UniProtKB/TrEMBL annotation, chain B:
This is ER lumen protein-retaining receptor. InterPro entries: ER_ret_rcpt. It comes from Medicago truncatula (Barrel medic). One of its GO terms (biological process) is protein retention in ER lumen. Belongs to the ERD2 family. The gene is 11415903.
Length: 10, 215
């Protein structure tokens, strides 16, 4: 799910 | 998550801890640009607007809160704390940083992933972060000698986005649909702005001499 989100980076 | 991004986030956290240590230990913000700190506070507030609506992971939420809280605390220290405030040299910190805010926001209105409130503020935060270090670099050039902690702060702050570039290369090679042009191009520009600082930082480390940026 994490990488599915678009802005998963800080 | 990959090792480059984790190392990048930890380096970014380290830069903030070093700056907090410098301000707390010396009760002074000499050599620190208040304007760069204000720009970073805007960067985090604009980028993490989805803090309460988009849950990605505990790590992600925790780090967002740390970055927002620490950047606001540092600005508060420099603006309000009587001991620290006295050491702020506003005659050296003269970069017109509101121009950076205006230019970044204008660019975000034209160049963004989607024309939505969150995406425009996200792109704005990416562009602003790329140039946020400029007031600090200008101040370092003006203030001549740089104390160790401030030098280390700028070094780690520049290094973190360099590690993110490795993260983007890694993700591009391992994830089929990975493209983050806005973050990548801005990240390269951001890291490039540190190039001469990195050079003089390396020279001072090699010669074990005081870090000095040419005026």
């Amino acid at each position: 799910a994490e990488d599915g989100k678009y802005h998963d980076e800080l | 998550m990959n090792i480059f991004r984790l190392a990048g986030d930890m380096t970014h956290l380290l830069s903030i801890l070093v700056l907090l240590l410098k301000i707390y230990a010396t009760k002074s913000c000499s050599g620190v640009s208040r304007k760069t700190q204000e720009l970073y506070a805007i960067v985090f507030l604009a980028r993490y607007l989805d803090l309460f609506t988009d849950f990605i992971s505990v790590y992600n939420t925790f780090m967002k809160i740390v970055f927002i809280a620490s950047s606001l605390a540092i600005v508060w220290c420099i603006r309000v704390h009587p001991m620290v405030k006295r050491s702020y040299d506003k005659d050296l910190d003269t970069f017109r940083h509101y121009l950076l805010v205006a230019a970044s926001f204008l660019l975000a209105l034209f160049l963004h992933e989607k024309f939505t409130f969150l995406e425009i503020f996200w792109a704005f935060s990416i562009y602003l972060e790329a140039v946020a270090i400029l007031p600090q670099l200008v101040l370092l050039q003006r203030s001549g000698n740089v104390d160790n902690l401030t030098g280390q702060y700028v070094f780690f702050l520049g290094a973190y986005r360099g590690l993110y570039i490795l993260n983007w290369i890694y993700r591009y090679l391992t994830e089929p649909r990975f493209t983050r042009w806005i973050a990548c191009v801005s990240g390269v520009v951001q890291t490039a702005l540190y190039a001469d600082f990195f050079y003089y930082y390396f020279i001072s480390w090699k010669n074990n001499s005081k870090l000095k940026l040419p005026a």
